[in-house]
Amino acid sequence: MSVTKIHHINFIVEDLSAGIDRYRKLLGIDNFVIDDLPGRGVKTARSKVGDSWLVLVQPVDMTGIPGKHLQQHGEGFFLISYSVDDLQQAAANVVAQGSAMTSEIPRQGLENWQVWDIDQNDTLGTQIQFCEEK
Amino acid sequence: MSVTKIHHINFIVEDLSAGIDRYRKLLGIDNFVIDDLPGRGVKTARSKVGDSWLVLVQPVDMTGIPGKHLQQHGEGFFLISYSVDDLQQAAANVVAQGSAMTSEIPRQGLENWQVWDIDQNDTLGTQIQFCEEK
């Protein structure tokens, strides 16, 4: 079992429009696709950079995990999601190594992304996630 | 001017060996290349994941920027470096947009990586860097 690439990286922003504007002006990143992800209490803007997605995440519900992250840490890096061929196998390996996933089953991300987070206590300060498109 | 891909992402760790071990066990990432970067006061371990480099960074000099980051924020995300075709052009665009680079000229990163950081005041809480291999 090995991750195959960086599928996406999420950055928390206070304001999606301001974030899009900043990334366009400083990095030339454009063609953002806007989406809501009500289950997480966020609005998102994603753009493909090379072979990975850059995702800007604006919390709209401050009681959700991204909203709490914004309140505690401010804007910035939120999580990195690695592509795997088989989510179940990737999660089973984590458990076999003595670590844990944050939930019993994967959850629905944007588009056809099925995502599953590793317990952050086991990942050296970084929220790491697996992603499988299906 | 537009960035072309995620060239590398740096994560600060307290102990390089422990970091390598964790990434191998949980993510199956292996084949780390170990390197010192004395100018930054760090030891590093890098491995290619898809089309991008994952870089683990252990500060050995706590007065350097990565060392201070570890002391202030603990382990976790440090910076994201985007590939550009022309460093000078990318930096000139940042300045033209009213933002700033952190130095007058690029600095030498690992291998043949020439890197140049955007002032973090202008990047919504994320240390963003340009990278050109030459």
How helical, in percent, are the residues of chain A? Answer: 10-25%
Q: Sheet bearing the most strands of chain A, described?
A: 8 strands, mixed
For the terminal residues of chain A, how far apart are their CA atoms? 18 Å
> How large, in whole angstroms, is the Cα Rg of chain A?
15 Å
Figure out the total of helices of chain A. 3
Strand order of the largest sheet of chain A: 2-3-4-1-5-8-7-6
Order of helices and strands of chain A: EHEEEHEHEEE
Tell me the number of strands of chain A: 8
- How would you sum up the global shape of chain A? globular
Helix and strand topology:
Two copies of one chain form a homodimer.
Chain A: E1 5-12, H1 16-27, E2 33-37, E3 42-49, E4 52-59, H2 65-73, E5 76-83, H3 87-96, E6 107-108, E7 113-117, E8 128-133
Parallel strand pairs in A: 1-4, 5-8
Antiparallel strand pairs in A: 1-5, 2-3, 3-4, 6-7, 7-8
What is the gist of this entry?
The structure is a homodimer of 134-residue chains. The first copy, chain A, is of the alpha+beta class and 134 residues long. Chain A has three helices and eight strands.
Structure overview:
Two copies of one chain form a homodimer. Chain A is 23% helix and 37% strand. The first copy, chain A, contains three helices and eight strands. In chain A, strands 2-3-4-1-5-8-7-6 form an eight-stranded mixed sheet. In chain A, strand 2 and strand 3 (42-49) form a beta hairpin. Chain A is globular and about 45 Å long. Chain A binds chain B through residues 1-6, 9, 11-13, 18-19, 22, 25-30, 49-52, 54, 74-77, 80, 82-83, 93-94, 97, 99, 118, 122-126, 128, and chain B through 1-6, 9, 11-13, 18-19, 22, 25-30, 49-52, 54, 74-77, 80, 82-83, 93-94, 97, 99, 118, 122-126, 128.
